[in-house]
Design brief:
Length: 249
């Protein structure tokens, strides 16, 4: 099992509002996280950092996350706490209007794998060389696609494609979408939209399937490709190769 994560400011933004981490707890379970913050006066990076830090501290100190039901309630309880913390920060700090963050995560245990998502950061599984998107974006254009108002192709370049319908810290109550996936997969990738807005799924697959280079090399190459195409946003990627190397499981 090989892991790597990286975040990059990109070529256009003055600072990085993304945060990313991969944490292992005492039982050898893994929690992967990517958060894409938003808000004025660098408030976005505060919100994304708050979410990453909270989850990291709670997960790393655990002996085990438990069964699927336990994990689901643990995720929702922590989402509730993080959401309230961000709301409190915004109230206490002037200039933090619009403070919030997306959050996509994957929880990998010996018996199951769960994905969680709020916002438009993405979670994928890689199987037999093909990327499959697990998460569903919480965006206005996605609602329009579901309602049949616009097509998937039209949504890709819609002027309101970045308008979120759900994020941490923007409403008093928020619930994370949680999805269980099969364990017979080759890898898991999480990313902010700085990757998926710059590269197609096929272009990402091509890099992830390259032979003779490490996971680290692959993630660095993806970020370089985004920047070569303009790097219009912060870029964050977390990846676990479940088949590569010696697995503890």
């Amino acid at each position: 099992m090989k892991t790597f994560y990286l975040t990059d400011t990109g070529r256009v933004r003055s600072h990085n509002e993304d945060a990313v981490n991969i944490i292992e707890n005492q039982n050898g379970e893994y929690l992967m996280l990517v958060c894409d913050g938003m808000g004025g006066h660098r408030a976005g990076e505060v919100a994304s950092s708050m979410a990453i830090t909270h989850f990291g501290k709670r997960f790393s100190s655990m002996s085990s996350i438990g069964n699927v039901k336990d994990a689901y309630h643990w995720l929702q309880d922590n989402v509730k706490e993080i959401n309230q913390s961000i709301l409190n920060y915004a109230k206490e700090n002037q200039g933090s209007k619009g403070l919030g963050t997306t959050c996509v995560l994957a929880l990998i245990t010996k018996k199951y794998i769960l994905f969680g998502n709020i916002g438009d950061s993405s979670g994928f599984v890689l199987k037999d060389g093909v990327l499959h998107k697990v998460t569903k974006d919480h965006t206005l254009v996605n609602l329009m696609v579901d309602a049949g108002i616009i097509t998937i192709e039209a949504a890709k370049n819609h002027p309101k494609k970045n308008v979120l319908t759900k994020a941490l810290g923007t409403e008093e109550s928020v619930v994370m979408d949680v999805t269980e996936v099969e364990k017979d997969i080759d890898g898991i990738m999480l990313s902010s939209d700085g990757l998926t807005n710059m590269l197609t799924q096929e272009q990402i697959e091509k890099v992830l399937n390259e032979d003779g280079i490490t996971v680290k090399d692959k993630i660095e190459k993806l970020i370089k490709k985004c920047n070569a195409r303009g790097g219009t946003d912060n870029i964050s990627i977390a990846y676990i190769d479940l088949k590569g190397g010696t697995s503890k499981w």
